[in-house]
Each structure stands twice: as C-alpha cells, then as structure tokens.
Amino acid sequence: MKIVILGTAYPFRGGLATFNERLARQFLQEGHQVEVWTFTLQYPSFLFPGKTQYSTEKQPAGLIIKRCLNSCNPFNWWKVGRALRQAAPDLLICCYWMAFFAPAYGLACRLARRNRHTRCIALVHNMFPHEKNVLDRFFAPYFVKSQDAFVALSDSVVQQIHSLTPAPAAFSPHPIYDHYGERMSKQEACQALGLDPSRKYLLFFGLVRAYKGLDLLLDAMALLPEKPYLLVAGEFYEDEEKYRNQIQRLQLTDFVILRNEFIPDADLRKYFGAADLVVQPYKSATQSGVTQVAFHFEKPMLVTNVGGLGEIVHHGCMGYAVQPDPASIAEALRDYFENNRQSDFVDYLRNEKSKYDWDKMTAQFYLLMDRL
Q1: Cα-Cα-Cα-Cα dihedral sign, residues 234, 68, 99, 51
Q2: Shortest CA distance to 302 belongs to which of 284, 282, 283, 274?
Q3: Which of 21, 102, 109, 116 is deepest in the core (most CB within 10 A)?
Q4: φ, ψ at 79 (rounded to 5°)
Q5: CA–CA gap between residue 358 and residue 351 (Å, rounded)
Q6: Of 285, 365, 367, the residue nearest 89 (C-alpha)
Q7: What's the rounded Cα separation, in Å, for the pair 311 and 326?
Q8: CA distances to 52, 166, 244, 259, 264 from 235, in Å
Q9: pLDDT in tens, 217-236
Q10: How far are the Cα atoms of 200, 267, 351, 353, 354 from residue 184, in angstroms, in the given order?
Q11: What is the pTM of this model?
C-alpha cells in the first residue's frame, strides 16, 4: 500500500514522534511505500511548557519525512488536505493525542477522503486529555467524524471513542520501543551517570506533570523505613520548586536525585540500566510509552491501576499494579526489595515481550482496512 502517517515526527522530539517514526519503519519493513507528513508549526511557543520542541538527535535515516502542516493556520489545513487528496494514499494514519490538533487534522482528512480512494484510520493515544479543557467538548467530535476507523492503545480509549462514534475501533497495545540499544549492566550505567552502583534505585522517567503522581511516590517513600534512592529523569512541565519543598519536608533530600532535563534517546539505556524498578504512580492514564521502554530493557515496573496500565503490567508477575495512593505504593516497594522479586519478575517479562511486537499493531490496521 501507499501509506501516509500524519503526525509529529523529526525535527520534533518526544515519545509520540519516536512512535510515529518506528511505526513507519515497520510498514516499510512489511513492503509498503510510506511517508510521514509532520508539522511546520506544532505548538505556538507560548503554549509549549517545556524548554524546546525540537530534537537534538540526528535526522532518522531511511524515512521520508515532509514538514507541511501548520497547526494554527486554517489556509494551510486546506492546502495539506488538497495535497493528500491528490497524493491519494491507500491508507492515511492520523496520529491523534489532543483536541488542539483536531481542527487541522479534521479538515485535512475530510479533504483527503474526497478522492473516494483514501481510507483514514486514526491512531489514538488519548481521546480525551489527562488535563481536561473546554476544547474537548467540541473539537474531539469534529475530528472523530473525519475518520473511517480507529486504532487505540488501550481498551479505555476504545470505550472513549465509542462514546463518540459507532465506527470500527480496535485495541492494539503499545508496542515495545526496541530501538534504544542494548541493555547496560547496572555497574556500567551507574558509572556513566555518576551514581553509586551499590544502591537500590527507583526510576521515575519522562516529563513531570501533575497527573503522573510524583507527589504520591514521594509520600510513599516517606513511609518506608529502609528507603531506596529515587532517580527522577525528565523535564518538569510544572513548578519544580513544589516538589523540592515536598522532598525537604519529608526529609528525603539525601534519597532523591532530580535530573530536570529532556533525556535524549541515546541516554535512555543509561537510566534504565541503573534502575532496579521503574515506577509510574499515575493518577490518571490511558497507556504509557515508558512501560514499553521498560519492557525492552527488561525492567520490572510498579504502576498504578488506572487507565490501561494495569492491562499491561500483570500484578505480582512482572511488577505491581496498585491503587494510586501512597500506602499501596509503599507496600509494593517494600515487598519488592525485602523479598528480592527482581529475578522472578525479569523472567516473566522476557516471556511476555513477544506480545508487543510492532507487527501486532500493523496487523490491526490491515484488519480494519479489510472491513472498510
């Protein structure tokens, strides 16, 4: 098939860009003609909470990435839509994660479908955002009506989609990020990061936002008589000082290491290599790419049982899926370290990994294409 993936990609950074590029590679590997059409302007600078939207990595080799879509310019949406209609891909995959992009995506896809050939299947990370806003009520339905079918990364998102449309929607779990290099030993990783390898480390990885529950994790650590060390690796998208004050109030200053910076792809293996347990104490969620990175590096996980996280992390087998409260998190941490669960959890992880290969996701697109 001729496939266009419409969504974020290089030169923009982040997990969604990485996802789209990896998906494009899978379709290429399966013999299709693939292009990624990304943004000229993704977010206006005043709406972006981080330091920069742009990657410091090299451009991905072997991918055709076209910068064409301006998220804020309606005249551009018409232009891109007409270009898609003329290009006439068999499959247009629109990568959706927040209502801000719904007008641009919705108009472009409507125009593309006028060629009566292109089928639009949305890849939905979040139908409704973690931090709700007034745009969701109007923009999400507008986007949904521009699509023929949907692939969602958690069953909870499938249910959200079906609250808006009866169109076909398939659940396909987030595949494993398998392009971050080989695992590093804990000794090697700690040496690279300037850490003491004799210590036990929890890893809280990714952008720090309120819904991700770092405050719950800090409260949980305060309940433990024998404290592991916590490595927070990711850029803060809210007030860092709030967390520093909490760390000081809970007398955790000696046990928490803050790396307030966006972690480039090349360094992920260091942070996951140093970790004994990856912790995602989210207050709300759909799914998380961090879970799939942990799968790749065969690291046990502690997640909270919200959204689709508990669908992936099997409680007591490869980690913990607990309630989003400090006492539940603390009890799981205590059990993990006191009872030396790491070896058994890693064995289970290795057996589970094949369930999350990328060809499982592309298969869902083929099945939906057959139904349209």
Answers
A1: positive
A2: 282
A3: 109
A4: -60, -45
A5: 16
A6: 365
A7: 21
A8: 10, 38, 14, 8, 11
A9: 999 999 999 999 999 999 99
A10: 16, 11, 20, 18, 21
A11: 0.78
